[in-house]
Structure formats: C-alpha cells, structure tokens
Amino acid sequence: MCGICGWIDFNRDLGGPDARRELADMTATLAYRGPDDEGTWIGGPAALGHRRLAVIDIQGGRQPMTHQEDGRPALVLVYTGETYNYRELRQRLAGLAHRFDTSSDTEVVLHAHREWGHCDPRNAVRELNGMFAYALWDTAKRELLLVRDRLGIKPLYYYPTEHGVLFGSEPKAILANSFAEPAMDADGLRRALSPIPDPDGTVLHGMHEVQPGHIVRVTRDGIRQVSYWHLTDTGHADDVPTTVRRVRELLENTIQRQLIADVPLCTLLSGGLDSSAMTALAASFSDQPIRSFAVDFVGYTDKFIPTSQRPTPDGPYVQEVAKHVATDHTDITLSAHELIDPNVRAATLHARDLPLTLGNLDSSLYLLFRAIRQRSTVALSGEGADELFGGYTYFLDSAHVQRDTFPWIEDSDHIVRRALDLGLLKKLDLSGYVDEQYRRALAEVPALTGPASADPHERRMREVCYLFLTRLLPRLLDRKDRMSMASGLEVRVPFCDHRLVEYVFGTPWAYKTFDGREKSLLRAATADLLPQSVVQRVKSAYPAIQDVTYDKMLRTRFTAVLNDRNAAVAPLLSVNRSRALLDATEDLRGVEQILALEDFLTDYKVTLTI
Q1: CA 585 → CA 359, 551, 580, 591, distances in Å?
Q2: Is 5 a catalytic residue?
C-alpha cells in the first residue's frame, strides 16, 4: 500500500530543476501513505512519484518500477494496493518466458501489461484480483494509463492541464503542483453538501476521480476514460443450498489470499456478523492466534442508549467472539476529550482531503487505526458485506425501498440546507442534483433475466442493491482508506473481492432473505464458525460516542464561526437560519458538515466561484 502521483506535459521536458522540485513537493504530500520509502522517475514529458508502505517483498519492491527492453525502460509503473493473485499470475507469465527480478506483485502487474495489455490494457487489468490504483507510462507510445480497481477501494484523482495531466492518490498531491488551482464552483459545492457522490467530478473545479472499474488513457491527443468492468446480470442458476456453499468457498479463497503479507496482520472486530465471520475464517487459516482489534468509548457499554441504528453495544459481542475464536484481542478505548482534540480533528480532516465528514465516526476511526499501527501493518475489515448481502435496515423497509430516490437518504441528510443562504440554496438546487444522480444510477442497472425478471419486487431490489454497491459503498471505502493510510496502515476488504461481488449480486433477492431476515446467505455460510448470539445479532452500526461534551464542543465552535464575518463559509450561510438550526436540532451532523467545509476552504486556500 502506497501513495502515487505524477505529471505528464507533452510540450516540455520535465527533467529541469523546477519540474523536479514540483514532483518532489507532490510526492512529499503522500509521505504518511508510504512511510517506508520514496522514489521518483523522470523521462521526457513524464514524471512519476511514489511513497511506499512495504508489505510484500520489502527489499525488492521499490518504485517507480521499470520494465526494460533493449537496455531502456519500456514501461514505468507507480502502484498502490495489492494484487492478491500475483503468485498465480507470476507462474503463468513465467511459463510464457517472462523473467522476474523481484517477488513483488508490482513487477507482476508490469509483466501482465507487457504480455496481455499491449493492444488493449483492459485485457491485462481484467487478470488482476485485488485492490489497486496505478499509473503506467509507456515510453514508446508516450501514453499514460491511470487504472483503478473494480470497486474503487483505492483512490486515484487526475487534473487535466493544457498540455497533459496531473494525478495523485489524493487531491493534496495534485494541489502541490503550481499548475493546479484550488477552486470550488457551484457544482463542487453541490457535491460537497450532498450525501450522494458524482462519479464524474470532485468538489474542486477541474479535478476528477478515476471511476471504479475504469482506465483513463492520456495521450497527446487528449484524455479518454474507458470501462473494463461493471456489474452484469449473471443469470443465477444455483439453488439456495448450492449458493450458500459457493459463498463459503469464495469467502475462504478470498480470505486466504488476503492473509498474504510479509508484515504483522490483524482483523477489525466489531462483534457483528460480517467482521466476526471474517475473523473466524482468518483464524482458521492461521497457524497462530490472529490479532483482533475493536473500538470502544469510556463508559459506552455501561451507559449505552439504544437507537434505531445502534440497538446494542459492540463490547459484549466482541469479547464473546474473541474468546470463541481465540484471537489475540485488544480493545482501543477512546474518550470524548481525544475526539475533541483540535490536533486529532485537523489530522482527520487533512486525511479526508475533501470537505466530507462523518464527524466523530471519522475521528474515532482515525484514532483506532493509529493505535493499531503500533502493532500491525495490515488489517482485514468487513466493509462491503452490508451492501452486498443486504444488511441495512433499509433493505427490508418497504417505505424506503419504494421511495423514488436513494433508499438510505434520511431527513437528517438535509439538515445542512437549513443553515444556507436562501438565494444560494435556490441556485444550488440540491434536490435536483440528488434526483439527477439517482436517475443516472438507475439507467446503469443491468436488467434482470430469467424467471425473476417477471417479479416487480425482484426488479426493484436489483436496483436497490446496485445503488448501495455503486453509490454508497465507494464513499465508505474511501473513508476507510483515508483514515487508515493516514497512519500508514493497510486495510484489506475481503467482502469486496470482485468474484464474490459478481456472484452475490447476481443471486435473487429471495435468496438473500431466504430465512426471513437480512444477510441470509452470509449467515448460513458462516454460522458454524460463530457463537449463536452473534449469528442472531441484529445489525448495529459503527459506534458513535454518546457524550454531551462532544456536542458542546461542536456548538461552541459553530457559534464562533457564525460570529466571524471573515470565516470562509460566511458567504454561504444565513446567520439567522444557522442560529435557529443550532437551537432547534439535537442532530449535529449538519453542523459537522459546515465546520468541515470551513476548515477545508481555509486550510486548502480554496477560492469560491459560486
């Protein structure tokens, strides 16, 4: 796991001192993503930078990595992530007369492109099983490829310039180059204030994100994005028992692959079905007790207040699973004062790199990962299981399912609008933006085939499952990546293996609820590994601190922003409406969002062009 960046300018040689300095500045912004090593490569119009977190082949996997032909670099690669099937691919390529100098997966990706991607790079990328984002420069074709994994686990951004492109794992790497201007227009503000992402753009004018399952090709003739993978209808033919067995087989194979590492590895354990099943499977393939970690808050279990999203505390279930599976378990217990710490909040927002926030959920995740990094370099997480197997309460709530919008949008997602200037609110038309993104997503959904296609509920649930996997999951994966990499921790997500996703997405909704409740397939496939209390546990969301001290801090900070006429967000807010919002609501997520926007505009010196 690493950080990558680079610069292509077809009208100049980037070997001069000024360009080298710019590349060094870009690479330096990603130091925490790759604390173990750094490297750059410059040749003519191309300049590539890399920061490395060494996980596989610690000595031999240095980057940028080149593939030599006739004594000259033919391909140059900067890569972040993991290709889990690299050993199988290496054997196949060796049988095709390829010779390797290292045991790293990065070199396998290089050879895969030389063997299978020469005419069409999609043929090479489709061979890869993993989470990855990389840039490949072809010195003969003078072509740059920007590649992102199928589910969007690893981030990758690009910024077109007059004569080429800037790219990086995070926006901050791009903004370190003098050719990038940090500006936010009305479209960017819509994206910043909406709970729904726009696959085409970011909050910053002119900056784009490589879409999951896509390749961006950059040549002198321009920039073109092509798809190499998307969800399709598989025409599921297996019965329920066969489907359950196949899910178990895929999970076992996926977790075995993702346990490969030359550094200490652990699991994230919440006591829910997803993380518990993952931990139990990982433990079954380990020859020593596997490490597990959980987050908790001071007094959380003793003073727990149930909510619709969090009906039970994690603690008791975590302890039961850790004992049942015999893990080497550690609880990371946090206090409100730690979450309030200005340095922690600043580090969290800097890691996010965009004005997107889940408030104390982000801060606690950051602190959890920071603590884990002291004992492990790689962690397995259960992210993606709810979206894949239908774990959220929304899936089984007909009122949410049948709404003509994204099922997970709640009234609380619109709270921030109540603080905005009325003229601005009308101009932004946030409801129209959300509806536009919803219609776009629906148009992408692969049609059902076979007997299920005649069932209106099956057709709707196909749409709902697609929305969760392609519009909600990417944001959660991005959050997990940012918070973990801010501490140099690699987090792997077995439930996002594309083979498992393809198979489960293609199963009828009736299979996913065959026992009358959520996540039927996953429960049946792993019940033999777990305590019955966990098998039967109702989903409880990632824990949020229940401490008035934290809320008081938010209210104090928001009041200070309202009183500051020079605040960056001042032109966007109605002071009277904002004060009324603060007095009228106990849900402070809208306040968190505005504070994150204020910090982003200030820290990144963003120009508003609304």
Answers
A1: 16, 11, 9, 10
A2: no
